[in-house]
């Protein structure tokens, strides 16, 4: 199975995540609680972004981001990794991303940046489609983890673009490359479907 950039980050920073995961487990937090804390942190970040305090919102977003890896680490250390936990984590990730982009959309609307509003919508659509294509592929026993701009890369684009006060550039990059990534995954699934069809036909 191919490793994603997110997988690479989890392995690279395992030496940090494991001790933190043990600490949070020790003080009685559950993985799902930490997941929800991450969503709450992104709501705070989106609030600052919507108010035009873009840099503060970006800093909050980047500070909260490691929580995304902690919940899975905590579940693994507790021996409680489950399909339900993975489901909650995945859904909360989508909410977190859309909350930030929603804050940006509000800010662009309030400042009459009409073109930026459209691009932000395209960025949100692309982000959701990347995940949706993967989910639908896996539901039909295909693999679709490949892609140029998965969630970790999108955070690396959006967070710094907020911190450095260039959110329009950030959403442009995500709008283009996230939708390109969705198309990449569709193509990968198409290839797998054709291979499966050939094998089925050969057996008949």
Describe the structure.
The chain has 204 residues and is mostly helical. It contains 9 helices and no strands. The longest helix is centred in the last third of the chain and has 37 residues, at 167-203. The model has no long low-confidence stretch (mean pLDDT 88).
Layout of helices and strands, plus pairs?
Layout: H1 5-12, H2 14-26, H3 31-50, H4 54-64, H5 67-78, H6 83-110, H7 114-139, H8 151-163, H9 167-203
Name the structural class. Answer: mainly alpha
Q: What is the count of helical runs?
A: 9
Mean pLDDT comes to 88
Q: What share of the residues does DSSP label as strand, in percent?
A: under 5%
Question: What's the CATH class, please?
Answer: Mainly Alpha
Domains (count): 1
Annotated CATH homologous superfamily: CDP-alcohol phosphotransferase transmembrane (TM) domain
Q: Examine the secondary-structure arrangement and name the CATH architecture.
A: Up-down Bundle
CATH topology: Four Helix Bundle (Hemerythrin (Met), subunit A)
- Assign a percent range to the helix content: over 70%
Q: Sketch the major β-sheet.
A: none
Succession of helices and strands:
HHHHHHHHH
Query: What is the total tally of β strands?
Result: 0
- Pick out the low-confidence regions: none
Distance between the termini: 29 Å
What's the Cα radius of gyration?
A: 18 Å
Shape: flat
């Amino acid at each position: 199975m191919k490793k994603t950039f997110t997988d690479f980050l989890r392995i690279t920073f395992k030496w940090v995540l494991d001790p933190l995961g043990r600490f949070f487990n020790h003080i009685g937090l559950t993985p799902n609680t930490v997941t929800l804390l991450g969503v709450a942190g992104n709501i705070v970040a989106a609030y600052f972004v919507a108010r035009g305090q873009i840099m503060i919102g970006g800093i909050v977003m980047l500070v909260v981001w490691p929580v995304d890896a902690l919940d899975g680490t905590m579940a693994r250390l507790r021996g409680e990794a489950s399909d339900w936990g993975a489901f909650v984590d995945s859904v909360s990730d989508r909410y977190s991303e859309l909350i930030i982009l929603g804050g940006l959309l509000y800010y662009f609307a309030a400042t009459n940046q009409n073109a930026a509003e459209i691009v932000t919508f395209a960025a949100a659509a692309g982000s959701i489609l990347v995940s949706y294509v993967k989910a639908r592929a896996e539901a039909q026993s295909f693999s679709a983890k490949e892609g140029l701009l998965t969630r970790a890369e999108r955070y690396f684009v959006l967070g710094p673009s907020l911190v450095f006060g260039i959110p329009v550039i950030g959403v442009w990059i995500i709008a283009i490359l996230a939708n390109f990534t969705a198309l990449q995954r569709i193509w990968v699934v198409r290839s797998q479907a054709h291979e499966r069809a050939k094998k089925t036909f050969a057996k008949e």
